[in-house]
Write a structure and sequence with these properties.
There is one protein chain. Helices cover about 15% and strands about 40% of the residues. It is mainly β. The longest helix is centred in the N-terminal third of the chain and has 15 residues, at about 30-40.
Length: about 270
C-alpha cells in the first residue's frame, strides 16, 4: 500500500459556503474529489484521503455583535433578463447585483492512499494553477510517497486532522439528529478532548430528483439535483492522532442505496484514542 503526501497546499479564494445555511467547516468533500480528479489525470486510483488543517482566513469583515459579513462580488451574466446588459435582479439599472458567495484563503495537507501510482513526475506540475474547493492553488510543499500512513503523518509536524464524528448524532435520550446537531455545536467546550473543536461541514449529497440525461451534464453522465448532507467533524492535533489507526483518519466514499452519496471514516467509539 502506498500513501502520497501533498503538504501545505495553499489555496486562494476557496469556497466556504458548504450549504445554504452553513459557512466554514473543513473542505472534506473537496479534498476527496480533488484526490479523485488528480488520480484521473495521472492515472492512479485514490480511494481514501486524510485531511490536515493548517489555517483558514475568511475573506470579509466582522461587524457588530461578532457577525461575519463575507466579501461579495458583483456580476454574473446568467442574471441578464430579456434586455441585454440589464440585470433583472438589481434595482440599479447601471450595476450588476451582488452574488451570494463566501471565500477564504486556506492551507491544508493531504495524505492520499493511492493505487497504481508509478511516479511523482508531473504531480507537482499539475498542482500549480489547479483548483481546490473552487479556489486556486498557489503553492505546495514537495510531494512524497511512503509505504505507511504513519510515516506520511510523521512528515506533517503540526496541524489538525479532521475526524468523522457522526457518532455524536446517533439518536439517544429521545432526541432526533437535528437536536443533537445543534446541542453539540452550541455546547460550551469542556476539558474532555473527545468533545472539543467540533465543526459542521458538508459530507455528501442526497438526490432530490431522478437521474436523467440533462443538458450541460459533464461527459454525458446522468444528472440529478441534490441537497448537501451536513455532518459533524472534529479537529484533533496531529500529535494526538498518532495513536489512532489509519482507518480512523482516512475518508472514503460510500453509496447508501442509489440516491445518497457520502464520505465517512471508521467509526470512533467513545473514549477511543484518548
Amino acid at each position: 500500500m502506498t500513501f502520497l503526501l501533498i503538504p501545505h497546499l495553499r489555496v486562494q479564494a476557496a469556497n466556504i459556503q458548504n450549504a445554504s445555511f452553513l459557512l466554514g467547516g473543513p473542505p472534506v468533500l473537496a479534498a476527496y474529489f480533488f484526490a479523485h480528479a488528480l488520480g484521473r489525470k495521472v492515472n492512479f486510483q485514490a480511494p481514501k484521503v486524510a485531511l490536515v488543517h493548517h489555517y483558514i482566513q475568511p475573506k470579509g469583515q466582522v461587524g457588530a455583535y461578532g457577525i461575519f459579513y463575507p466579501q461579495q462580488r458583483r456580476g454574473a451574466s446568467f442574471t441578464y433578463g430579456a434586455s441585454v446588459g440589464r440585470d433583472y435582479s438589481s434595482k440599479n439599472k447601471h450595476a450588476l447585483s451582488l452574488q451570494p458567495v463566501a471565500t477564504a484563503d486556506m492551507c491544508v495537507s493531504l495524505i492520499i492512499e493511492v493505487q497504481g501510482l508509478r511516479s511523482l513526475q508531473g504531480i507537482e506540475t499539475l498542482l500549480f494553477g489547479a483548483r481546490f474547493s473552487g479556489g486556486t492553488i498557489v503553492s505546495a510543499g514537495k510531494c512524497k510517497t511512503s509505504s505507511s500512513f504513519e510515516e506520511s503523518l510523521g512528515d506533517v509536524p503540526s496541524g489538525y486532522v479532521v475526524l468523522d464524528r457522526r457518532d455524536i448524532l446517533e439518536t439517544r435520550s429521545g432526541k432526533d439528529q437535528a437536536e443533537l446537531f445543534v446541542e453539540a455545536l452550541g455546547a460550551v467546550p469542556k476539558s474532555d478532548s473527545n468533545m472539543t473543536w467540533l465543526s459542521a461541514t458538508n459530507l455528501g449529497y442526497a438526490a432530490i430528483s431522478s437521474f436523467e440525461n440533462r443538458v450541460g451534464a459533464r461527459e454525458g453522465y446522468k444528472h440529478a439535483f441534490a441537497e448537501p448532507l451536513v455532518g459533524i467533524v472534529q479537529y484533533r492535533s496531529v500529535r494526538d492522532c498518532r495513536q489512532l489507526q489509519p482507518e480512523q483518519m482516512l475518508w472514503q466514499s460510500e453509496w447508501i442505496g442509489e440516491d445518497i452519496f457520502r464520505v465517512v471514516q471508521k467509526k470512533i467509539d467513545k473514549g477511543e484514542g484518548e
